[in-house]
Amino acid sequence: MNAIEVNKVRKVYNQRDVALDGVSFTIKEGESVVILGHNGSGKSTLFRTLTGFEEPTEGSVTLLGREVDPGKRRHLRETRKKVGMVFQAFGLVDNVSVFQNVLFGALGQVKFAPATYSLFASEALRTRAMECLDRVGLAHLSERRADRLSGGQKQRIAIARMLMQDPEIILADEPIASLDPKAGREVMDLLADIAAERNITLLMILHQIPIAKKYADRFIALKNGEVFADNNVSVIDEDFETALFGSEGPKDPPADEKPGSMEQEAKSL
């Protein structure tokens, strides 16, 4: 079964700026796939379309058999229940505890938001939150305020929060771009291990080629809003990198393409 289906997606801004031009691909359940591309290639627009923050001008996106329809907010919430998102900007609430941040991951599963507050959460939710914290190796920090954590710890807490959803798909947008190399490897190891042990489909946007080759089975490369290549990561070599990125190679995304704004939108839904 396909976990993700993108069918002839086209996204046009201001009736003339084409960000995506007929993008199509499918990703099977349990696959680990990375999206590659130069700045302006359409990666961020594709991610926003997959997560329902952008509505395609043409075409469709289906996650777990449900079409992503930004125009129907209740339908979109239902679609997202089994889709975990990991952002570069972490998106934690700094002035509350680690435990409370993880409990917030259950917001889509309760009728009333206060049911995820630590004072009112059920024993079942509290137990699950501690299990998720234990899985990322940070149960001992459950009572610490989020703003007292390192960057790597914050991303691991964000992953624990995401695990509260019991996701079937993980969408990760530059999950290690804000981290030092050691913390980045730890986060990637964690994501890869969780996806493998639970057979979760993992789709990531990355710009580090060595990381992509180590942690993904397959890549989809975008160029000028179109699918430039879709293949096993083993075919990536210097010639391919030059063809995709140019002689200067991949660069960090500029500030206006980073996913912090998406995280803010996610909180409002």
UniProtKB/TrEMBL annotation:
<feature type="compositionally biased region" description="Basic and acidic residues">
    <location>
        <begin position="249"/>
        <end position="269"/>
    </location>
</feature>
<dbReference type="Pfam" id="PF00005">
    <property type="entry name" value="ABC_tran"/>
</dbReference>
<dbReference type="InterPro" id="IPR027417">
    <property type="entry name" value="P-loop_NTPase"/>
</dbReference>
<dbReference type="InterPro" id="IPR003439">
    <property type="entry name" value="ABC_transporter-like_ATP-bd"/>
</dbReference>
<keyword id="KW-0067">ATP-binding</keyword>
<keyword id="KW-0547">Nucleotide-binding</keyword>
<keyword id="KW-0472">Membrane</keyword>
<protein>
    <submittedName>
        <fullName>Phosphonate transport system ATP-binding protein</fullName>
    </submittedName>
</protein>
<dbReference type="GO" id="GO:0005524">
    <property type="term" value="F:ATP binding"/>
</dbReference>
<feature type="region of interest" description="Disordered">
    <location>
        <begin position="244"/>
        <end position="269"/>
    </location>
</feature>
<keyword id="KW-0813">Transport</keyword>
<keyword id="KW-1003">Cell membrane</keyword>
<dbReference type="InterPro" id="IPR003593">
    <property type="entry name" value="AAA+_ATPase"/>
</dbReference>
<keyword id="KW-1278">Translocase</keyword>
<dbReference type="InterPro" id="IPR017871">
    <property type="entry name" value="ABC_transporter-like_CS"/>
</dbReference>
<dbReference type="InterPro" id="IPR012693">
    <property type="entry name" value="ABC_transpr_PhnC"/>
</dbReference>
<feature type="domain" description="ABC transporter">
    <location>
        <begin position="4"/>
        <end position="249"/>
    </location>
</feature>
<dbReference type="InterPro" id="IPR050086">
    <property type="entry name" value="MetN_ABC_transporter-like"/>
</dbReference>
<keyword id="KW-0918">Phosphonate transport</keyword>
